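[job 0412] stage=complex_fold ligand=G3I status=START
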Amino acid sequence: MRRFLYLAIVSLALAVNVTAQSQSSPPQPSAPQTSISQPSLKDAYKDCFLVGAALNAAEFTGEDQGEDAIIKSQFNTISPENVLKWEAIHPSPGTYNFSQAEKYVEFGEQNHMFIIGHNLVWHSQVPKWVFEGKNGKPVSRKELLHRMRDHIRAVVGQYKGRINGWDVVNEALNEDGTLRQSSWLKIIGDDYIEKAFRFAHEADPAAQLYYNDYSLENEAKRRGALELVRKLKAKGVAITGVGLQDHVNLDWPTTDQIDATITEFGKSGVKVMITELDVDVLPSSTHTADVSYNVASDPKLNPYPNGLPDAVQQALAQRYADLFRTYAKHCGLVTRVTFWGVTDKDSWKNNWPVRGRTNYPLLFDRSAQPKPAFDAVIQLAPRQAP
Ligand code: G3I
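[job 0412] stage=complex_fold status=DONE, emitting structure tokens
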């Protein structure tokens, strides 16, 4: 319906144009002209927070025209879906591969984006060699701290003054708020998080530094994160903010849980960013975003392979409206809302926790067209488009 409307508007504008032109000059084969401006998320939320998306390589190299137009018209901040992760940028000892990351940062600079780095210290997508000595045995605390410092110095140093904010440590907590038993914790000890932030601040004192995690709306996990923030701040560690990934479902977490979570982190003296937003509309029993969690494929878990029923489309629009109403209630405390992807076509949610599903978690569909959820978010905005 929307595509028909959009095309109707375009052809009307064209007709008007052609008539005007034919009266003044011979008709020109030209790209469709339209004076009707597409509402923009970044402009609509200008007085509240930045709005952005995580980009894969095809997106920051402009391979997909439709997505390129969305990114440049809708967003004022970008995050790297995979290109700045340890395995991609530092695949082997002493070897750094900045080629793709450079294209990502250049794309951000050319389009005046607030550029995010994701991520420096994580338990996933880190090559085994990082934690192993020559004999395959775990390296010492001293050696692993040395490797962490080298990596952070090299990567943050490479983009000093160009990348504006870093997810320094990602997903270091268990659901009960205790520290995840990662190789970082087992080898270095629980001060590895403090060390990572100090190394990052040392490498670029101007960069914003974040702790990023999922399911912080779960009270036990939130308490663990608040304790982490309190300890870091008590030691004078430069932590700017906490990232709520918000890989949510249609009904979890509740907006009250999100509201309380934002308020509590605000009280602990840090900014809050929504860093990896998407809304899973498919049957899912999980509240985790842990990539190691997988479910066997089953047709019952992939109910909409040929399109989303209108009732679910409307439920998605309502969900996004409720989420943005909650975020916009905290303008200034919530400084950024980043979607984890641009269109439904490339979302990781098509392959997680079940591979090969057809999911619809974002505001733009597989033809790069805005969905009803997009309109709902725009209509809610503090600053209505002209
Ligand atoms: O690069 C290899 C490629 O060489 C190979 O041909 C291909 C075949 O499988 O795999 C490619 O690696 C994939 C990588 O994305 C790059 O595309 C990995 O298999 C795949 O597992 C990896 O998935 C990423 C996932 O993190 C891995 O942890 C997703 O794209 C990415 O969206 C997801 O993002 C995470 C955030 O960083 C942290 N929070 C949760 C979020 C979702 O899991």
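The radius of gyration is 22 Å.
[job 0412] exit 0
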